[in-house]
Amino acid sequence: MGVRMKDDKSPDHYVRHEDLEYGRAVRRGEEVSLKLDLTVPRSAPGPVPLVMWIHGGGFRAGQKTWAGHMTDARWLTKAGYAYASIDYRLKAGSEDLSAPVARRMAKLRQYRSRGFRKNLSGAASLAAMEDALGALAWLDRQRDRYNLSDWVGIGGNSAGAITAFNLVHLSGFFGLWRPAIRGLVSISGGFAYPSLYAPSQVPVHALHGPGDELVDIRFIREIARIGGDAVELVESEDQQHGRVRLHPNEPPRDAYARIIGFFDGVRRAEN
What we know:
Strand content: 15-25%
Strand order of the largest sheet: 1-2-4-3-5-6-7-8
Number of domains: 1
CATH superfamily: Alpha/Beta hydrolase fold, catalytic domain
Helix content: 25-40%
Oligomer: single chain
């Protein structure tokens, strides 16, 4: 997409803030602290756009400190974006959900696509959505402190991408507040409720492997069919589940050029 980036492993171009508590929530009857890491470009001339990323792990594992997130942060901050990676509750149950979500959870099941894995669309996925919304609300309140603009994009790998879709398209279903989301990147993700998908909400860039056995590609293909021009779907037979590269030997600069080019393109279209 016209993006050219130079490899640079030096941290000189960014400042990293680790273990920022964005909220507290209940998991299995115990209150837990929810934290995020925020990496911002050093010496930016003005407020910078934010990309918040959500890790994968099937809602049972994963963490914000996954090595891939440091790679994400390095490339995105070099391109002028702030980058936040969040932890969220894992293995949460229905008893851990907020009242607005718990009340409508049974209703939501009526919209779930046949064949979408229940462990990727149950209570744990909705708790992750709640936490991601909490992280966005906290970041919105901290804009002046960390030199963030009001432009927000989101992305995720696998379960994290599922959470990104849920955040955008289910927050209204549950009556939950969220800031405007300008772009969504899905790496090996999908959305379990296509009848609730609204293409006008946010443009999507998706990467998925046709042979993916963890998240079936047919669900993101359905979103691409409904979304039309609002969805860029890139398919690669050699893509490994949850990885941003088309194939294991693709240079990182090319993989991140696609992601950054997508976000840059959304921003240009808005101006």
